[in-house]
Amino acid sequence: MTFFTVSSTLLGTVFVVRVLGELDYRHSPVLRAEMDKAWAAETPSVVVADVTGLSFCDSTGVAELILALRRSRDLGVRLALVGVHGTLERILAITGLRTSFEVFASVEEALQKA
C-alpha cells in the first residue's frame, strides 16, 4: 500500500494544504476533500498547495490539481503551488500547464506574495 497524507492549516486568510506521499487515483479523493475545506473556509485570499512532500503524481493527481485551479478561478481565489518537483514538475512542463499555476519554492515565499 502506498503512503499518502494531506493536512491543512488556516494562516490568517491563507489556507495551506500540505500533501505528502503518492498522489494517484486512490488518493485523489482525499486531496479533493481537503481542498473542499479550503474553498469552504470563508473565501480565503489564497490557497497554497504545498506539494514539497509529494513523491509521485499520476495523471489523476494532475487532474485533481487542474480541478482545484478551475475552482479557484471560479471563486476568485488565488491558488499557489509550492515545491513542485519530480514527476509533477515534468508533467506540468510537458503538458504546458506549468504557466497556468503560480509556483513558488517555499510556503514562506508564497505567503509573502499573498
Quick recap of the structure?
Helices cover about 40% and strands about 35% of the residues. It has about 110 residues and is an alpha/beta fold.
Q: What sort of overall outline do the alpha carbons produce when their principal axes are compared?
A: globular
Number of helices: 4
CATH topology: Transcription Regulator spoIIAA
| Neighbour order of strands in the largest sheet | 1-2-3-4-5
Structural class, judged by helices and strands? alpha/beta
Task: Report the CATH superfamily.
Answer: STAS domain
Distance between the termini: 37 Å
Strand percent estimate:
25-35%
**Element order, helices and strands?**
EEHEHEHEH
Over the alpha carbons, how many angstroms does the gyration radius reach?
13 Å
Total beta strand runs: 5
CATH architecture: 2-Layer Sandwich
Mean pLDDT: 93
- Count of separate structural domains: 1
Question: What is the CATH class designation?
Answer: Alpha Beta
Helix content: 40-55%
Give unreliable regions as ranges.
Answer: none
